[in-house]
Amino acid sequence: MSIPTGTPMGGSGAGRSPLGLEFPQSLAVYDDYAGAQKAVDFLADRKFPVEQCMIVGTDLKRLERITGRLTTGKVALGGLLSGAWFGLFIGLLFSIFTEEGLLAILLSTVLFGALFGLIWALAGYAATRGRRDFSSVTQVVATRYEVLVEHKVAAQARELLGEMPGGRPNPFA
Prior knowledge:
This protein is α+β, with helices and mostly antiparallel strands. It contains 4 helices and 3 strands; from the N terminus they run βαβααβα. It has helices at 33-45, 72-96, 102-128, 154-162; strands spanning 24-30, 53-69, 134-150. The longest helix has 27 residues, at 102-128.
């Protein structure tokens, strides 16, 4: 995994990325974000320059939660409703530029949007040819969280973190 870095030592910090650290060193590795956050908070409470820290999520996994079964009727209804909402939005935008026939504009854009949404959703569903007959939500999550610090303050951070109740995890785990 590549860690974003700023300018090398001795270089100007003018073009440095806010997400970059110069020569980052691992301080600790945690199994959850709350543990990493607690460690950085502990350092902040002891007046450590936490702007020289970074929490990096590693070992990324893509999770997909199946939310239901898709049928032609559900796809059609979803397309119809989302198209109607989009049509209403377009109708409201059009209504800004005209003074007459507001109801007619809103009605026609909602109907046109609903029809377009219905056709588009059914065409997309038909294109899958039954290979994806379910709906789902996806999320990318990290399984470990590493706290990195600038090399010039790493020793100070390790010393402070050693005072934290419960100790600190192994940075090489």
